[in-house]
Amino acid sequence: MHNCVILPPNSTVMPERLRFHRGALATGCSSAPLERRPPVESRIVSRADFDAVIFDLDGVVTRTASVHARAWKQTFDEFLARRATGDGESHRPFDLETDYAAHVDGKPRYDGVRDFLAARGIELPEGDPSDGPEMETVCGLGSRKNELYNELLEDVGVEVFEDTVSQIRAWRGMGLKTAIVSSSKNCAAVLQIAGLTDLFDVRVDGVELARLGLKGKPAPDMFLKAAELLGVEPGRAVVFEDAVSGIQAGRAGRFGWVIGVDRVGARETLLENGADNVVSDLREVPTRS
Prior knowledge:
Elements: E1 4-7, H1 16-21, E2 45-46, E3 52-56, E4 62-63, H2 65-82, H3 99-104, H4 109-119, H5 138-156, E5 158-161, H6 162-173, E6 177-181, H7 187-194, E7 202-204, H8 206-212, H9 221-230, E8 237-241, H10 244-252, E9 257-261, H11 267-272, E10 277-279, E11 287-288
Parallel strand pairs: 1-5, 2-11, 3-6, 3-8, 6-7, 8-9, 9-10
Antiparallel strand pairs: 4-5
Helix pairs in contact: 2-5, 4-5
């Protein structure tokens, strides 16, 4: 049975999420210095200044990071255990504290597989998206992770951040357009389980990323596609993200305001990677109707 749990903005029900962000690696699209932005105090979400608000899913709207992390760990640990030897390869178990943030958080599934394997000096055939979870290919490992994720999601349900949901409803009431952007191919299912599908005018997720041949975060493609589908200029849209790769994507796309969402103590990391400012509760964002 599916469950939807409403979380207060500063909930610490799953403190392991804190560990995922510490030690996150910056992997921006460019080595150029970040351009100077107007002071945070001078910005406000209003119809005069913005036409749309765009949200990452996990960590901003829902809390499913621990489910993703558990699925990744089981997938890679099973795989590594089967590879008894391998010159130049590292077979130590997947580390939730370092490997999650550095290699898979916020990225499309196959990119996460490739990045983690590369970090361990392991090469596998790419395979095909139709590969089953038993196949030792990049796509096969991705299928195994997705299989485990869906099983876990069925068991634990979806937790929703109350502050985000209330603010989305308020901003929609002001006439702002809304979009959800997620690298996950399970985005639509998660929104349906949580009862949030009607909150978003546009959804750009892992399914659309593959269909349209978009690049995943930290490239800005997914956010730019969302703005295009909404019919707004990037400079007239606000992006909300909790992952380093997503913050970098928002900045690379030159969105009008890139706000980091920190529920785990990662404020400085988000600011260092390009967030204009960071909040722990979306109701902190200045708004004028």
